Amino acid sequence: MSDDGARSAAKGRSLLFHRNFRLLLIGETTSKLGTSMTSVLLPVVAVTTLDASTFMLGLLTAATWLPWLLIGLPAGAWVDQLPRRPVMLCANAVSAVLFASVPVAAWLDVLGIWHLVAVALLAGAAAVFFSTAYSAYLPSLVDRSELMEGNAKLQGGEQAAKVAGPGIGGLVAQSVGSASGLLLDAFSFVVSSVCLLAVRGVEPRPAAKAGRRLSGEISEGLRFVLRDPHVRILTAYGAAVNLALAGYQAVLVVFLVRTVGVDSGALGVLVSCGGVGGIVGGLVAGRLTRWLGTVRGLLVVQLTASPFGLLIPLAQPGPRLALFAVGSVVVLAGVVVCNVIIVSFRQSYCPPEMLGRVTATTLFLNYGTIPLGALLGGALGSLLGARPTMWIVTVALVAANGFLLGAPLRTLRDFPEASRRD
């Protein structure tokens, strides 16, 4: 941990007074804002500039997540063998160049749909390396006791970016064009890199492992995740939640526009409600865990918050639209609290030399259910309709809590600490 981190811990001050953490927070929130804008701008480029079909839009979305399934596991093994900050800087540089290439190609009149797919795929690969290294980097910046606060603030910044990004992206598309607007995302990666370069202190280089094959490194990470009861349960729970949430996202717009009958203005407000809930979750996560404990806090929040999702399928025009707003706010607040607790536990519990592989393995398994959930949600929406599908996915979200109620979590107040394993 850096010297300013030790001083902030000793004084009990907020991590916002911790220079290195503050730089990480500013850089990552800026990058997430750019990414959130691109979630609107890239499909708009495909539709308005290239007249892409629905299939190609689906392919564009799939290309973003496919790298987790293709390189997620080896990326974790590679990250564990390298200093994390240079990996993050390289990933940022690659992403900046990729997104800047779209407006350049548009200006030269050579932009095609396969260019966008390639950008989404390669930027997704860069995101795999960045996310894996980023999760393993925070414990080197702050004290173990500050991980919960740090992750809560980072999650809060990410959720704020998700609320603001789509609206800003829409305004940018109207003012300068969707393709040119992607330059802002490229610039956000530059800001992230500048902040990382300004972080003080030398990150220790991982010890070299002579004679270890990549397959052996990957297998070691998989064994840790599958054999450790705490990590295994949380990974299974995350995969189940992502399956349900991906199905929810697949039918969300159709449900609100065609079934409930909201206009485009109301759609934007309602979709943003979840992000507001995420900000609230980031603000209260630390207090809840100090009051209840990490395990009990996770159980209480999820068992309380996820049933509010059952309000969402009850939404109707008029006052009953509030049911959707309340349901999405509470559910997303619970999801963010859950993310803060689980990520903080993983960072403090896992051996530092394995954190990259454990992170990559859990994300590989968690994100692997997202394409499946999206396909199931779309298929069920076509067969049964949007409202019945909303009932199915929100019930599935509640049912996912069954993983948390199994041994050993239900008997614990707090997750075990790494010091008990050392």
Find the count of extended strands (DSSP E, 2+ residues). 0
3D shape: globular
Integer-rounded radius of gyration: 21 Å
Q: Could you tell me the strand content as a percent range?
A: under 5%
- Would you identify the regions where 5 or more consecutive residues have pLDDT less than 50? 5-10
Find the structural class using helix and strand composition: mainly alpha
Number of domains: 2
Instruction: Give the H and E element order.
Output: HHHHHHHHHHHHHHH
Largest sheet: none
The name of the CATH superfamily of the largest domain reads: MFS general substrate transporter like domains
The CATH topology of the largest domain is Growth Hormone, Chain: A
User: Mind telling me the CATH class of the largest domain?
Assistant: Mainly Alpha
CATH architecture group name of the largest domain: Up-down Bundle
Ends: how far apart? 18 Å
**What is the oligomeric state here?**
single chain
Mean pLDDT: 88
Helix content: over 70%
Number of helices in the DSSP assignment: 15
